[in-house]
User: What shape does this take?
Amino acid sequence: MIPDPIPAATLILMREGADSGDGPEILMVERGAALAFLGGAMVFPGGRVDPGDHAMVPADAPDADEAAARIAAIRETIEEVGLAVGLTPAPDAATLTTLRAAMASGRPFAEALRDHRLTLDMQALTPFARWCPEHVPVRRFDARFYLAPIARGDAHPLIDGGETVRAIWTTARAALAEADRGAIRIIYPTRRTLERLALYRDFAEACADARAWPIRRIIPFRAERNGVPSICIPDDLGYPITAEPVASAERG
Assistant: This one.
């Protein structure tokens, strides 16, 4: 029996690349090897949407679930890598450190923000995709993906040392090359996402493309492609590669 999906949110942070010809850099994190879900995999910062995220949704929000997911993406990124986007005013390093420490000690996100006179700017996140794989036998996530920019001077991640054991800035092409030679482990949705991100020259182009395609749940399915059993996704959502042989697909 397929379990009900757990709402989750993922943030793809992008900064200007060191070499403009290589495209933007993205932040990826390595999950602790001992974790039951995706242990040792390279992913983007994020996690499940908590009740506290729902409690912070404004009463006039047109889509409460969407708003809660954006809040979760902002919160999880602070917790996992110590980087803040979508906060007003933008916190300085000292404020961000104390904010993160308060959250780590159990202070609710909403209260920690009030303590530091910070408010949320959820429009700082651009919706990019929504993945909901069905094959996972124990945990199944309905994850909304967002894009957000960050300046190079503000882009120094500090890992939490628990769920996240490493954080790197890399281009999408470089991450794919590392995965192909076995240096890092990425799962099917991450690979498809990196292939799409590799198309963009900068953050503005990524946002424009995100707005050009519909966003709906992507549920990978099995089908034959050129006589080869494959894991597939719909071909009308902006992804340059929509099928991968079952034999090579890493599904978590």
